[in-house]
Amino acid sequence: MKTINKKTLLCVLIICTVIMTSIVISKILCDLETEVNRTEGIKVLQQAMTVVSENYVEEVDPKNLIYSAINGMIRAINPQPAFMMPEQHKEIQANKAKIVISKLLNTNITEADRTEGVKAFEDALTFVRKNYAQDIQPDMQPKDLIYNAISGMIGSLDPHSAFMTPEQYNDIQADTRGEFGGIGIQTGFKENILTVIASIEETPAFRAGIKARDKIMKINDEDTKGMSLQDCVNRMRGTPSTRVKLTILRNDGQEKKDFTLTREIIKIKTIKSKILDNRIGYISINQFQQQTASDFAVSLSKLMQEDIESLIIDLRNNPGGLLHSAVKVASQFIPSGKLVVYTKNKKGKKKEYRSSKENPYLAIPIVVLVNESSASASEIVAGALKDWHRATIIGLTTFGKGSVQSVVPLKDGSALRLTTAKYYTPKGISIQATGISPDIVVKPKIKKGQEVRPVIRETDLEGHLTNSDTEQLTIPKDIVPIRIDTNEDMQIQRAIDFLKTKPYKSQIRQT
Q1: Can you spell out the DSSP letters for 325-340?
Q2: Domains of the chain (ranges plus CATH)?
Q3: Which residues are catalytic?
């Protein structure tokens, strides 16, 4: 009996030893993996800082980058005790972040350089993981904290710069292909609130009645405040046939409503064309994607076969897209080798984009329609045709996004979408925060009792870049209808009336 007990005890001891050894080894491996995870993350942060320092369109203080990175990391933890009111919690969290950041920056950075900045961030990461361990989600790795830090750092630069995780980077490439799983809205931040800029026609958001100026307070019951724009986009996109719930405020917060939308493959049909009265061709471009220029050429060729005498190019509500696509569209109306647009970085280095040889339509009279939501690539086309006197611009002052975003992959598969330069029209005019002014201002007709909205432009976005190259203009705060009946589209009607005038046709044909 004693022998059996001894054997049993020995077995138990061996089993316990094996278990304890496994636990110790597992802990060592886990710590090792965590350290590797942390080290790799720090390297990505360091690379991101270098990319920003060398390529961002303006000079950036490394100390401010680290401040924003630490702030982004702390905001990601975001504990909210059940007994505390949200307003109290936010205030305490903000104060906590400021105290921690102030302490770390004051004690670790004596000179604003990248090396000391990264060292300060490493100390901050250690400090956060040690002092806020109870607040960190169990599955959150050091690299997750670092990703949130990089997102905070890049998001602090301007409204159009963003950090993308490897998954987000893969998803965002669908934008340039013109196809992705989503709900079909364009968004930006207005007064720190995620706000709808426009709903894309024939999409779930458009059919559900989501409107410009709607404030998206929650996505799937998760508060959007504190998220980056890319985080919000990533949550709204997803696998087709899956659902996403948006909590929206409208009418200055007086109306709150939940929308549950089923995601679809959003195939952006960028070109629509038809013939209007008096042999006037009409082509609408709603985005500039990979196929836009070739689709535009095909549509225009078909219209020309119908013997059109003039053309309206409608760029209203076009948020932009691919630069090369915009250049190709403009090239069809400008003599070969002429400057369409150029970019200039912080060092003053220029890159010119000139018209190609494919320019068969040098004489046809053109009107370009623009409004407050015509942005970026749209403004490039409008600016080039205006500067070369190839079109008359009708409508409202454009959005004013005159900055270039470059996608820079990082070593771990993540990427930065970074503002690296500014656009300039052929006459050397920067449109950043000023936009393209129309030759003829035509405001949409507002009927009595019709729903209206104030417009959003670049100057309304938090942290937008200013325009130091051009005298800052006072852009009117226009009020426009939420919906415009096609039969009452005063801007199209003004374009038609304008193109019917014989003096205009004669003038164009003589140039």
Answers
A1: HHHHHHHTTS-TT-EE
A2: 36-157 (no CATH), 179-266 (2.30.42.10), 268-510 (3.90.226.10)
A3: 376, 387, 401
